[in-house]
């Protein structure tokens, strides 16, 4: 077998991006002046209950901020401007998953795998901007339940250290959102989605360590 029964795996990924725009133009948006960042960490642990088959847990935390000093939208007869808009949010997720390794013929260090995940997430954020008489803003909470299939490939760099690459392919998601506008008005929404496609935007790369 490619992966024997009784083996433990611990791994994960981390990412940080920072961006600054100074009078930047993008398509129909001109004079963008903004700063922002995104931070995410995603640890996971897996135990092989059978040869090439394991069960595990995945967690993730992400945080993002965007501060737009100015941006102008110009398209046909439509003209809009944004000034001093600030947004910040963070998200926590937890999933239980089943993984099956698919050995490649003759390859001892490389194999395909498929993860079946079931879990949920909680996201909290706020956005505000100056109004004519007072600061306007929206506070939001989002909840989601998800069933997904993420195939990928694992390549061992040494006897126990491996590089993993996975991409979202299929998912069913149900979510609902609660909002509070200007500390007065309330709003709610819910949605259901399902899709079967290779989602390159969900491409993930991480490192894993295998031990007995």
Structural overview:
With 212 residues, the chain is an all-beta fold. Helix content is 0%, strand content 85%. The protein contains no helices and 8 strands. The protein has strands at residues 8-26, 29-50, 53-75, 78-103, 110-130, 135-156, 161-181, 185-211. The chain has an 8-stranded antiparallel β-barrel with strand order 1-2-3-4-5-6-7-8. Strand 1 and strand 2 (29-50) form a beta hairpin. The chain is elongated.
Shape: elongated
Secondary structure: helix percent: under 10%
Runs in which pLDDT lies below 50 for 5 or more consecutive residues are: none
Q: Averaging pLDDT over every residue, what do you get?
A: 90
Number of DSSP E strands: 8
Question: Which strands sit side by side, in order, in the main sheet?
Answer: 1-2-3-4-5-6-7-8
Q: Strand share of the residues?
A: over 45%
Backbone CA Rg: 22 Å
| Helix vs. strand class | mainly beta
Please give the alpha-carbon distance between the first and last residues. Answer: 15 Å
- SSE order, as H and E? EEEEEEEE
Number of helices: 0
Most strands sheet: 8 strands, antiparallel, barrel
